[in-house]
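One such shown below:
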Amino acid sequence: MVNKENVGWLLAFGLVIAWVASHSSRDSAMAQTNHRSTVTATDSLMAIPTVDNNGAQLLTVIDPVQRSMGVYQVDRATGEIALRSVRNIRWDLQMEEFNTHSPKPREIRALSEQR
């Protein structure tokens, strides 16, 4: 028997499986048309379930190929899934530093270059 609390996780899991299936055929077609582009086992989606401070269930889905992430909230009572945010993190990951404290990366690099 499935209780209401598990319904949300089952729906979230189903959503991730459906998304993976729809994108795996696209990735396969891309790999066939562009020989330089290959999809490996490390290119699969990652789903990270968490609970926020208010007790809401969240599912963060990360696509390392597209370098994007989405956050879904699963209502525990109804199992309803709502997309809360989506972001392409490609340019975020290109930054050398952000919200860092000393020693900052450029300070460490300058020290190592002095040797």
